Amino acid sequence: INARNNVCIYVQLCRPTMVKICKMKSVSEFKPDPYVATVLNCMMWTFYGLPFVQPDSLLVITINGAGLVMELVYVVIFFIFATSPVRKRITIAMVIEVIFMAVVVFCTLYFLHTTKQRSMLVGILCIIFNIIMYASPLTVMALVIKTKSVKYMPFFLSLANFMNGAIWIVYACLKFDLYILIPNALGCLSGTIQFILYALYYKTTNWSDDDEDKEKSNLNAEIELSQA
Fold it and tell me: What total number of domains does the chain contain?
């Protein structure tokens, strides 16, 4: 039940950004980086929670398995409404992630024969990619500081990442699992920094330029058609 509730919270918090993209029929200045990074992160953690890697980790499998499905949906939405250069970036990133994941699975199962060895290797990789996932909004943070606007740093995504990190910290403390504790502590720190940026730049944000976004989307579409 806790796993299901955690997933539902994440869906509700991230949905507004996706609804806005669908309404505008454009990703505008929104970045796909957090979603693409989270796909690999969810794949790694789902693999980590399997019984032959880390026994008794059912919650890790269910939450991250569901998260993987949702993130793939978000990436598909981004891909549909993105410009050609962004689509190319997403495609390259996803192909690299799938190949890398296949290599990790093969090496783990073929060369390591105990759950302790497997959980150590996959756990270290999970830490690395969990940190990358939480650091992926840095590209958006740079845009926020440059434009003094938080319009393209979705608040609900920041809140979801912060809450996700906080909940996993509690779980890691109960399970005494450092592989889960370390990256999610950094995730909470990343979320806190994003909240600070919101407090600093919320008042200077122009929220009334959606029409400009639509015009920009139409212009990008015309450019793509002229290049076709």
Answer: 2
